[in-house]
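hiii so um. not sure if this is the right channel but i have a protein structure encoded as tokens and i wanna go backwards to a sequence. like what aa goes where. can anyone help
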């Protein structure tokens, strides 16, 4: 009986740290489910992922923009997003301090991030930009 209790204790002692480690790892992944690009092209596919990993570095997580080493315009309730061609042009080609991301994003990625910006942060522009629209704008 004593050997059985000791064996059970050892099994629990070995299993407990593993279970805790697995739970902590799952929690970390749930909190940090971001995708990161590892080269010249972005791998993120949704507008939210692209905004979070590309745009918010300058425009801030709440899209309110910033002033400091440069001036980063607010995208909140931004009337410049109303005509869908304008943000497509900016993402592809850049303007002033904003670099162009056209070489680093596919047509689908540009459409996704533009659509995300136009339907979030107090923007409610419902006409959808397609990958074809972006392809046509690149010409």
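sure thing!! here u go:
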């Amino acid at each position: 009986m004593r050997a059985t209790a000791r064996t059970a204790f050892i099994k629990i002692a070995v299993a407990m740290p593993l279970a805790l480690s697995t739970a902590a790892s799952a929690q970390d992944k749930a909190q940090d489910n971001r995708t990161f690009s590892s080269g010249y092209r972005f791998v993120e596919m949704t507008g939210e992922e692209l905004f979070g990993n590309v745009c918010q570095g300058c425009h801030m997580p709440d899209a309110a923009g910033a002033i400091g080493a440069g001036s980063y315009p607010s995208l909140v309730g931004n009337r410049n997003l109303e005509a869908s061609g304008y943000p497509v042009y900016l993402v592809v080609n850049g303007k002033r301090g904003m670099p162009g991301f056209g070489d680093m994003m596919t047509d689908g990625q540009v459409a996704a991030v533009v659509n995300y910006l136009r339907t979030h942060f107090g923007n409610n522009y419902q006409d959808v930009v397609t990958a074809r629209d972006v392809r046509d704008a690149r010409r």
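oh and Strands lie at 66-67, 71-72, 94-95, 98-99.
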